[in-house]
Amino acid sequence: MPAGPDLPRLPPDPPLPEDPEILRLLLRWCEIQSEAIRVRLAAIEDRQRAAAAKPAGAGAGPGRGPKELSEQWIVQYTIGAPRKPMLVHTPDCGLTTGHTRPITRAQALELLTGHTVEACGICGAERHLGVGSP
Fold first, then answer.
1. Domain range annotation of the chain
2. pLDDT tens digits, residue range 36-59?
3. Which of 6, 42, 47, 73 gets the most CB atoms within 10 Å of its CB?
4. What Cα–Cα distance (Å) separates residue 95 from each residue in 10, 28, 30, 41?
């Protein structure tokens, strides 16, 4: 893909170290970043398809905000092997880090009510999903 006016041009032969171990580390980092980009892109495209398929005016009832309507929640996984679900975040939580993937509202509820993971204490996923202590 040619660089546009907003994209920086890379030199034809970017400077890379001669150390094979460092090159393998850089390659692994790029693979991890590529997977994160693929997951984010898939989530955005899913939301766009869902928004395009939704009839105008559908969904919002009295007292229902955008978080209750969203089907895209986020599960964050532990670091290392094996990766296990660790936290559930709201769709717009800005504190998600590391290995994450989008999940449905039903999956988020199952994880939280099954006591297999905790909710993010900052974004209030439990509160928005209606689970936890009254």
1. 17-53, 67-134
2. 888 788 778 877 887 777 665 544
3. 73
4. 31, 24, 22, 18
**Each residue of 78-101: pLDDT tens digit?**
887 788 889 999 888 888 887 888
Which DSSP category does 13 fall into? Answer: S
Instruction: Return left, alpha or beta for 46; rule: phi > 0 is left, psi -120 to 50 is alpha, else beta.
Output: alpha
pTM over 0.70: no
**Rounded-to-integer distance, Cα 17 and Cα 20, Å:** 8
* 3 state SS for 26-39: HHHHHHHHHHHHHH
Dihedral in degrees, nearest 10, Cα atoms 35, 72, 115, 76: 30
89 in Cβ contact with 112 (< 8 Å): no
